[in-house]
Design goal:
This protein is α+β, with helices and mostly antiparallel strands. The chain has helices at residues 63-82, 107-110, 170-178, 184-189, 333-349, 410-414; strands at 2-7, 10-15, 44-46, 105-106, 130-132, 163-168, 209-217, 229-236, 247-262, 271-277, 358-366, 377-378, 394-396, 399-401. The chain is globular, with a radius of gyration of 21 Å.
């Protein structure tokens, strides 16, 4: 199905696959060629997931402009394809829609508490209501509430904790499944170099993709029409905080952050694409008067800006002090220009599309993949305010200070990931969520 629309005297092409509007799940190489991701301004929205990044000719490559634009185009093509409606039609044509990535396997479906072999890929592929929960009670099992490295929770302006989840595509799942990496014993027995499959444009094959999502419970003051929404089962486990109890309830949640990691031939250290809701936070020192943010209160000022909430952390306690968060590294001007152009395409489909309210914060990739383990990542620092809230850097004397090996850098951080056997785990920490097999 191809639909041609006109907006602002510019022809805008919306591409769907094979006449049905059905998007790829990241495993089918029979789809049409993905849109070009080179240094041109993106003018298409497609349900076809790109295999790898496309770059302009060598003599036209400038790292901070044309090359960045190529990777940013790749990020947006990936986001659009992954957020396309798996049931057909155009992204956002009815305002909100189910998404492709939410049909993937969640980490709790792959790494079972029993350490047993997970169910086949196609089993439970069509999801029921979202479950934002953890059955474990020890700190390492509380990733549904705490961010990576357990740096602390993120609390919205209604005093509710943000919730987090991870999903992986078929290629990544099958590599884990086929190599028995879904439990601790299997990882310790695995002696080969762990290398997930890479997306390859020439071969038209997809590589491993993982998605990390951040959600907020929608409540007072939230305009739900501006969020991708799902009904979710919210599970709050017992913590060390006094008075906590295990509880489960249903709530409407809205997507506030999406982090996409894609392993490709061009970028063996993965391409890291990070998106946020446009109303999450202001840039440091640039809050807009009268604007309501998800994780910033203008009246509160910047006294406790980007500070981890005081312990004990109790996600079940209502009315907690909200986090006061600002973005320390502004979105690149070229990236912002691309964001504006994509937003225009989404609005052209439907002025009420929820997807117009999401923005690309940035893309990180290895500039020289074979030069070192990390491949000289660019930009050096990049943070999602919902997923790496407290790793953005620090403010000292009114100036922003970045600290190597502390300030968020996807590639540098993930380079330290290992299996339960102590071997490098190819830039993903997800394998450490595996449990021991129960006999």
């Amino acid at each position: 199905m191809t639909i041609l629309l006109l907006a602002s005297a510019t022809a805008i092409l919306f591409v769907s696959c094979s006449g049905t509007g059905q998007p790829t799940d990241g495993s089918d190489s029979t789809h049409p060629k993905p849109p070009d991701d080179s240094g041109k301004v993106q003018t298409t929205l497609s349900s076809v997931l790109p295999y790898d990044v496309s770059l302009p000719p060598q003599n036209e490559r400038v790292l901070e402009t044309t090359v960045r634009r190529g990777f940013d185009n790749f990020s947006w093509h990936s986001f659009i394809a992954l957020c396309w409606n798996p049931e057909g039609g155009l992204i956002g044509e009815h305002g909100d829609n189910a998404t492709v990535w939410e049909t993937w396997k969640y980490n709790y479906e792959v790494f079972l508490d029993s350490g047993q072999k997970p169910s086949p890929w196609n089993q439970l592929l069509v999801k029921k209501d979202k479950s934002l929960f953890q059955t474990g009670k020890t700190p390492p099992d509380m990733r549904a509430i705490f961010q990576p490295f357990l740096t602390g929770p993120l609390i919205d302006q209604n005093g509710q904790y943000a919730r987090f989840e991870i999903a992986i595509n078929k290629e990544m799942f099958e590599y884990i499944d086929n190599n028995t990496l879904y439990n601790i014993e299997g990882q310790r027995k695995f002696k080969d170099t762990l290398r997930f499959p890479s997306g390859d444009s020439a071969k038209k094959t997809y590589g491993a993709i993982m998605v990390k999502a951040a959600w907020k419970i929608l409540g007072k003051g939230d305009d739900s029409t501006k969020f991708h929404r799902r009904m979710a089962t919210i599970h709050t486990p017992v913590t060390t905080a006094q008075g906590t109890r295990d509880s489960t309830y249903e709530a409407l949640v809205g997507l506030v952050g999406l982090h996409i990691g894609t392993k490709t031939e061009v970028s063996p250290q993965w391409i890291w694409s990070t998106f946020e809701h446009v109303d999450n936070v202001p840039d440091y020192g640039k809050a807009v008067a009268g604007k309501q943010y998800n994780f910033y209160n203008i009246a509160a000022g910047e006294k406790r800006l980007n500070q981890v909430p005081s312990q004990p952390w109790n996600p079940g306690k209502p009315g907690q002090t909200p986090s006061q968060i600002a973005r320390l590294t502004p979105i690149d001007s070229g990236t912002q220009a691309l964001n504006d152009s994509i937003r225009a395409l989404l609005v052209a489909i439907n002025p009420k599309s929820v997807w117009q309210y999401y923005t690309l914060v940035g893309t990180q990739w290895p500039v020289h993949p074979s030069a070192s383990d990390t491949g000289d990542p660019f930009p050096l620092y990049m943070a999602n305010c919902t997923l790496e809230t407290y790793d953005q850097g620090s403010i000292q004397g009114g100036k922003i200070v970045y600290t190597p090996n502390v300030t968020s850098s996807c590639i540098n951080c993930h380079n330290g990931a290992t299996t339960w056997g102590g071997a490098p785990s190819d830039f993903t920490f997800i394998l450490k969520t595996a449990k021991a097999e129960k006999k």
